[in-house]
Amino acid sequence: AFSVVSKLLSQRKLDLLDELVSAEVLQVLKEKISLLPDSHRDALAADIDAIMYTTEGDVRICYDDDGRKFVSILMRFWYLNGANLPDEVPGETKVFQIVFGDESTKEKRHLLTANYEFQREFTEGAKPDWTITRIEHPRLLE
């Protein structure tokens, strides 16, 4: 889900996120994405093969006032991306240079992070669908 959503964000195909992302988050994303430079927009895309590490940041079970039960899982992702970002992006993890072939051909990759929170209702009879309720790409979507 992270790879699919991040690519759709990068391509500005926000209309395809209606069933995957909460309405509140989608509204904020529409505003932020329209203001992004192309290099930052390109850096949002995380190819599934470029995801280096994932970990859960927080798992919560909550109930609303009507007694409905929800589970939220905050996932953190580290991924490599070849977008043309400046080397001095503040707070970014170290820039790696990967050499393919000879020394004259270097391909620069950035190790970037993203936080996505997934929520699902576990009340009996509720649809078993997960919804993304938070999307953070530090230094890119701010």
Automatic annotation (TrEMBL):
It comes from the Eukaryota. GO terms for cellular component: mitochondrial inner membrane. GO terms for biological process: protein insertion into mitochondrial inner membrane from matrix. One of its GO terms (molecular function) is ribosome binding. This is MAIP1 protein. It comes from Nipponia nippon (Crested ibis).
